[in-house]
Design a protein that fits this description.
- This protein is of the alpha/beta class and 377 residues long.
- It has 15 helices and eight strands.
- It has two domains: 229 residues, Spore Coat Polysaccharide Biosynthesis Protein SpsA, Chain A, CATH 3.90.550.10; 99 residues, no CATH class.
- The protein is 51% helix and 13% strand.
- Helix 11 packs antiparallel against helix 12.
Length: 377
Amino acid sequence: MIECLAALFPPKVWRWQDSPRPRIAVLIPAHNEAAGIGATLETVLEQLTSLDQLVVVADNCTDETAAVAQEMGAIAIARFDDTRRGKGYALDFGMNFLANHPPDVVVIVDADCIVAPGAIEQISRLAIARNRAVQATYLLTQPAKPSPKDAVSTLAFTVKNLVRPLGLAQFDLPCPLTGAGMAFPWAAIRKVSLASGNIVEDMNLGLDLALAGHPATFCYAARVTSALPQQARAAKSQRTRWEHGHLQTILTQVPRLLKMALQKRRFDLFAIALDLLIPPLSLLVMLWALAMAVAIAAIRFGISQIPVIMLGSAGVMILIAIVSAWAKHCRRDIPAKVLLTIPLYVLWKIPLYFSFLWKPQTKWVRTERDNADSSRS
């Protein structure tokens, strides 16, 4: 609730002294993206100068991804490895290529994203000015005729990727890395290992950088967007990967962060741990409803009403957080009546969370793309 309420205030405007534009390398990992990568490259190329590099890592591709990239003016490098699969390994391959002529800043963009004008320079300059990783505002766009499920999914994604990071930025606290639109000073990114098949590699990269002394800063003004998957299988796969990965990260990384926060007396690491402990929005609502049901049932057996009062207060806080986030950042695109369908959306995701208990996803799986026409609509 604190993060969401803080996000109601005007965003902090980052300023840096006049200085030469840093030399930028944009790194795009791509697996069989020939059908849609052209749109991404167009939005990136128009923002680069002759001193910059645009490198596409065609990772285990069986289509014309590399050829399309080269045709448009990018440097395309091919990687083939049947055992070490995943975005992290592709990024590590690209970083080793860049090491021959290292840039000042590395910007990572996914192959299905649209980068808003000026975004690459904004996050690159901020990365140099603060000597930190920088995360742009990364959002999903709805289809022309979104279903209630699409709308609620977009709302949850906006809360996670825009509202909460913006609230943290108001207190000058680190934000998580959420995916496309990330900038890193070259010296900082070389301190951590990227070669991993972790299913939420961006989130873990942000934690590793924070522990190395380069926590991420949120740049509200820089925008990167991607289309919300419309294929049911693709949408389910993407959500399962993100949310199972988040839960696994809570279990494995929060103890590590809290330990380092105490040892090094770093409040920023403590804040990162607290933010990471907040489960995905649907799971948070689900856990609250379950706890409230148990507390109400317990009253019938003469147990204190205090748990009900505390949980009722927590429920009000969750409601305030959701409604304030919608009112400030989503009201134009998501009708108010969609908020009434949130309970149905939570019920729809129950199997996803139960599957985490007996069969958690541990391997990186690429999200299937919609066809090019639907992605542009």
